[in-house]
Amino acid sequence: MPSSRRLLKKNSRRIVIKIGSNVIASHRQGLDEKRMKGIAKEVAALREEGREVLLVSSGSILCGMEKLALPRPPKTIPMKQAAAAVGQSRLMWAYEKFFARYDIKVAQILLTGDVVADRKRFINARNTLMTLLKYQILPIINENDTVTVDEIKLGDNDHLAAQVTHLVDASLLIILSDVDGLYTEDPGKNPKASLVPIVETVTPKIKKMAGGVMTSGGTGGMATKVKTAEKVADYGVATLILNGTVPGLIKRALHSEDLGTLFLPKLARLSSRKHWIAHSLRTKGELTLDQGAVGALLKKGRSLLPSGIHSLSGKFGVGDAVLCLSPEGKEIAKGLTNYSASEMMRIKGIHSSKIEKVLGYKATDEIIHRDNLVITDES
Length: 379
What we know:
five-stranded mixed sheet, 2 domains, Carbamate kinase, alpha/beta, 15 helices, 40% helix, Archaeosine Trna-guanine Transglycosylase, Chain: A, domain 4
């Protein structure tokens, strides 16, 4: 077996396991208690090996559909939220029942996007999760679908799993889906498509493979899983996609069997703060840079100065996240700005020494300091 597979057994002490809704529930039959029993058994076995485990579980809406006797998936936001509210308690009750057989206590954690976007709340959420692990309580995490709106919505639970992996400094993310992993093509359309066992780097070719390949339920297709693996790799963590409908694969994969698709981590990982900037914050605006500024950021690791800004868009304030674009409109970086949009409109293109003369004051020489800047495209 490849050395990277063998290292999974040794290096995966703290694991985040994302369970897709299609693994434990269905539109027609509701919760699959038999599969949940199996997952509880597998997680208990991991803990017996001395591993710490956190679950990110979808399925609340499907559980709610079952309890509400809905004939088809709800389409309106209020109905989805109502189904999630009804289903979440059903989902947690089932988890508590099955894990109690192994004397494992569980805790429900419901997150929204504003929690991970605010640094203080991010750290508070981290402290809560770490305390639960300290007391050997199994956190079961979901997005708070009952109250989320676009402004605070995390998106799909693949993205949530990436955020949790970062929150707790996990050493491995496992995504359980109803497919065996990433294929060279959509296996539903081409029976000759082959499974990709290892992905060293998420390239445009890899993203194209994931394309529009959707799982049979839930909101996240293979494209979102590949994007999640890319985010997690930035933090120096591997991602393993497995078929969660097949019992026993987790243990077998962690004991070096060549199963699923393993996405390798980057060797040069981002710091926790820079990963938070890159993957947890929503951007409020865009800065189009001149070619000189692009070179200074990409090749010299410099801060962004006002002289390098050609134009800007959006409404943002001091400390907000903004994207940095090349003259051709290609995203190259993301960072926290030291000046608001209205201030920047007045100082773009000028030398830093003239900021005070134009504004009547000067916060800093830099629009974005390099410590608050993350390169997002180095190609």
